[in-house]
């Protein structure tokens, strides 16, 4: 779906055409699920994705500006509310098992193990770093899109990106050393 | 140094996103290559992380959340539950299909009947449309459309060779009642017009049920009789409401008006 199609559907959704809203929700559901999966945890991801669309349904008539940025802000707020409410431990049982895996290799089990290590490491980042990593690398957004969503300057985003990747390197290096 | 590295890293990420090979990108910044290389490798790994698959249960819960949204403006009213659990399971399955197969299905669902695979989508679309409608007058009109639609579905379903669906007839009455209740705080002229329209609908439904009664099995004719009578009595009461309403000299609050209407129409809650 290109930007023109999104704008056209958005216009219809604001006028109250439910089909248009449903089409927008259907298009963004997998993206929101992926965002929540890595931003919060796998167990809560689907519930929070549902919560995002409830908020979309409630406020679509007031929506202004970039829909994508607005949607991600809703998702970010839902994730923050969830973390506050539950004082979340950011490792799911799956993440804990990940610390027992061995990194690297072409073996499918190793690949899955490495992915688990990465998820564990993401979960240990600061909230700002995790948000940046999720938006930039998991969602594939550009710096200017992230700037609009997070209300940060692009220079700040570059700094945060550097620190997040460095922290991940440290965390993943630590994992690898423990397994040696 | 740190700022420079941040900018180099960002530039390298952009270039790899454009399809340039990692080694080619690093060759352009030899002074920072050793520091940037592991960070780029991690960035690349992050971009390769797998997509979670939406589960039927997850979509089902989302559907439930959306369908449980308050659809009336008054805060004290109860929430309306549109879907039963088994209904939601079917709806979730359909939503999955729709997500994978395209949203033309939503339009196709408009002809669906209860028991059809697409019927949950039809109901969901109706509720979403109602929720998204801000104008109170349009909400009343939607209620009238929903009421007419439920009777149409009941007749079509029966003609398909299935049993008479009492639930649809109950929904028909409920939507007609809600259309009048929703109009209670509108300006007098608009309110009268809409209640008159609801009265016309009830009259039409009475006549339709009368014709329908002649086509159903004898044992089911008795089932239809109370619905037919109810529509007729309601139509008469609604017309009286409009007359009384417009003839009342003293100003009334919506609450008083509603109480008055209910007093005038003792079968209102039936």
What does this protein look like?
The complex is a heterodimer of chains A (180) and B (270). Chain A has helices at residues 3-14, 18-39, 42-59, 67-86, 93-98, 108-123, 127-138, 143-150, 154-179. Helices cover 78% and strands 0% of the residues of chain A. With 180 residues, chain A is mostly helical. Chain A has 2 domains: 1-88, RNA polymerase sigma factor, region 2, helix turn helix motif (Rna Polymerase Sigma Factor, Chain: A, Orthogonal Bundle), CATH 1.10.1740; 91-180, Winged helix-like DNA-binding domain superfamily/Winged helix DNA-binding domain (Arc Repressor Mutant, subunit A). In chain A, α2 runs antiparallel to α3, α3 packs across α4 and α6 (108-123) crosses α9 (154-179). Chain B contains 12 helices and no strands. Chains A and B meet through α2, α3, α6, α7 and α9 of A and α1, α3, α4, α5 and α7 of B.
Can you describe this structure in just a few lines?
Chain A is built from 9 helices and no strands.
The CATH homologous superfamily of the largest domain in chain A is called Winged helix-like DNA-binding domain superfamily/Winged helix DNA-binding domain
CATH class annotation of the largest domain in chain A:
Mainly Alpha
Distance between the termini of chain B: 78 Å
What does the largest sheet of chain B look like? none
- Largest two-chain interface: A-B, 47 and 44 residues
Number of helices of chain A: 9
What share of the residues of chain A lie within helices? over 70%
Q: What gyration radius of chain B follows from the Cα positions, in whole Å?
A: 29 Å
- What's the number of structural domains of chain B? 3
**N-to-C terminal Cα separation of chain A, in Å?**
47 Å
Give the CA-based shape of chain B: elongated
Second rung of CATH, namely the architecture of the largest domain in chain A: Orthogonal Bundle
Count of extended strands of chain A: 0
Which percent range describes the beta-strand content of chain B? Answer: under 5%
> What is the SS-derived class of chain B?
mainly alpha
N-to-C series of helices and strands of chain A: HHHHHHHHH
Assign an overall shape of chain A: globular
Mean pLDDT of chain A: 80
Q: Which range does the strand content of chain A fall in?
A: under 5%
């Amino acid at each position: 779906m290109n930007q023109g199609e999104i704008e056209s559907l958005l216009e219809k959704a604001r006028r109250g055409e439910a089909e248009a809203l449903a089409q927008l929700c259907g298009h963004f559901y997998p993206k929101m699920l992926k965002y929540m999966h890595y931003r919060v945890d796998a167990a809560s991801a689907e519930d929070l994705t549902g919560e995002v669309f409830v908020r979309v349904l409630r406020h679509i008539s007031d929506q202004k500006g970039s829909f994508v940025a607005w949607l991600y802000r809703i998702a970010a707020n839902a994730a923050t509310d969830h973390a506050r409410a539950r004082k979340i431990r950011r490792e799911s049982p799956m993440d804990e098992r990940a610390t027992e895996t061995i990194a690297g290799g072409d073996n499918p089990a190793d690949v899955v193990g490495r992915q688990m290590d990465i998820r564990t490491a993401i979960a240990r980042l600061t909230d700002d770093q995790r948000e940046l990593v999720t938006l930039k690398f998991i969602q594939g957004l550009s710096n200017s899109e992230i700037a609009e969503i997070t209300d940060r300057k692009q220079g700040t985003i570059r700094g945060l990106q550097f620190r997040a990747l460095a922290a991940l390197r440290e965390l993943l290096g630590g994992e690898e050393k423990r397994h040696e | 140094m740190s700022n420079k590295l941040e900018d180099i890293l960002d530039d390298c990420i952009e270039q790899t996103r454009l399809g340039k090979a990692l080694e080619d990108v690093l060759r352009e910044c030899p002074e920072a290559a050793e520091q940037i290389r592991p960070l780029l490798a991690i960035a690349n790994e992050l971009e390769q992380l797998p997509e979670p698959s939406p589960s039927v249960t997850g979509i089902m819960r989302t559907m439930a959340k959306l369908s449980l949204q308050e659809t009336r403006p008054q805060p004290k009213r109860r929430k309306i539950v549109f879907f039963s659990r088994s209904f939601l399971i079917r709806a979730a399955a359909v939503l999955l299909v729709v997500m994978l197969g395209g949203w033309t299905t939503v339009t196709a669902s408009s002809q669906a009947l209860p028991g059809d695979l697409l019927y949950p989508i039809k109901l969901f679309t109706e509720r979403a449309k109602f929720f998204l409608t801000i104008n109170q007058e349009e909400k009343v009109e939607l209620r009238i459309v929903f009421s007419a639609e439920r009777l149409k579905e009941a007749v079509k379903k029966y003609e398909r060779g299935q049993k008479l669906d009492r639930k649809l007839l109950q929904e028909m009455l409920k939507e007609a009642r809600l259309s009048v209740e929703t109009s209670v705080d509108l300006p007098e002229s608009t309110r009268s017009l809409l209640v008159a329209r609801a009265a016309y609908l009830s009259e039409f439904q009475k006549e339709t049920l009368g014709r329908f009664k002649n086509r159903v099995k004898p044992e089911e004719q008795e089932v239809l009789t109370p619905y037919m009578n109810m529509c007729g009595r309601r139509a008469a009461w609604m017309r009286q409401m409009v007359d009384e309403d417009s003839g009342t000299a003293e100003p009334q609050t919506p609450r008083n008006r509603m109480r008055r209407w209910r007093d005038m129409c003792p079968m209102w809650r039936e």
